[in-house]
Amino acid sequence: MVTLRRIDPFSAAKISALCNLFVGLIIGIIYGLFLIVVGAVSGGEGVALIGIGVAAMIGIPLFYAVFGLIGGLIGGAIYNFIASRFGGLEIELTK
């Protein structure tokens, strides 16, 4: 058994941000494409939706990444605080 006693909060923040960026890309592309198609079908009134769809493809992944970074940083710090008082995760590794 190996005990994980500490997590570098910045390392956790980096991984969390990148994982959330990936999820945000998927959601942003789906949502953005939907808005672009609806905007194109709507004619002149849907031009704003096309712009919003493009903005969603950029904004949603960035939003997810920023909040993933913040969440990873806070989560790593909370883990370290709790692990220092109660012990860390016990992990069994095999070779």
Rg: 20 Å
- End-to-end separation in angstroms reads 13 Å
Largest sheet: 2 strands, antiparallel
Number of helices: 2
Low confidence ranges = none
Element order: H for helix, E for strand: EHHE
Number of domains: 1
- Which class do the helix and strand fractions yield? mainly alpha
Mean pLDDT: 93
Describe this structure in words.
The chain has a two-stranded antiparallel ribbon with strand order 1-2. It is mainly alpha-helical. Helix 1 runs antiparallel to helix 2. 77% of the residues lie in helices and 6% in strands. The longest helix has 40 residues, at 47-86. The chain has one domain (18-85). The mean pLDDT is 93.
Short description:
With 95 residues, the protein is mainly α. Helix content is 77%, strand content 6%. The longest helix has 40 residues, at 47-86.
